[in-house]
Design goal:
By secondary structure, the protein is mainly β. It is built from 2 helices and 10 strands, in the order βααβββββββββ. The strands form 2 sheets. Strands 1, 2, 4, 6, 7, 9 and 10 form a 7-stranded mixed sheet that branches. Strands 3-5-8 form a 3-stranded antiparallel sheet, with no helix packed on it. Strand 6 and strand 7 form a beta hairpin.
Length: about 170
């Protein structure tokens, strides 16, 4: 049996967004852990940063890209998208996105073959190296793509194949 470790946070620090709302991650300063850099209050979000509800209703990756204004996204070695090459169809798939870009503002995670390909949108209030860890259910073998917004759009991709049972 695989063991997982979790960081337990006081209930006041755990905020789960309602469906169709964006998750914004502030820096945390917790007792016993190294302090995060101090950040002044972020400026109000520009109109271009408004929540794109239509993107979650998009039926193709091209529709999602159009709704976020993602044109030609170049592959970047500073974006690491880690997921198992082969995963069990009956278990959630662990996906890790690590962004090593100083000006990263937003990550858009999509899966090519899903009926609603947009999986997640995550924004940071301050530029810094960031790491995301999510578990997602995938019904098909699919290509995952992480689009990262800086001054331009960059990306990383990884194919995840699903097995029906352990061999």
């Amino acid at each position: 049996m695989r063991r997982r470790s979790f960081l337990l946070l006081p209930p006041a620090l755990v905020v789960l967004p309602a469906r169709g709302q964006e998750l914004r991650l502030p820096p945390l300063n917790l007792p016993g852990l190294p302090a995060a850099p101090t950040v002044t209050a972020p400026a109000p979000a520009p109109a271009s940063d408004a929540w794109p509800q239509a993107a979650f209703e998009a039926a193709t990756v091209d529709d999602v890209r159009a709704r976020f204004g993602i044109g030609q996204a170049q592959a970047s070695p500073d974006i690491l998208l880690d997921a198992p090459e082969i995963a069990l169809a009956s278990e959630p798939v662990e996906v890790i996105v690590e962004v090593r870009l100083p000006a990263a503002r937003r990550v858009v995670l999509v899966a090519d073959r899903l009926p609603r390909p947009l999986l997640s949108v995550i924004s940071w209030p301050s530029p810094a190296g960031n790491r995301l860890r999510l578990w997602i259910a995938l019904p098909y073998t699919t290509r995952l793509r992480a689009f990262v917004q800086t001054d331009t759009w960059l990306m990383a991709s990884r194919e995840v194949k699903l097995a029906l049972e352990r061999s």
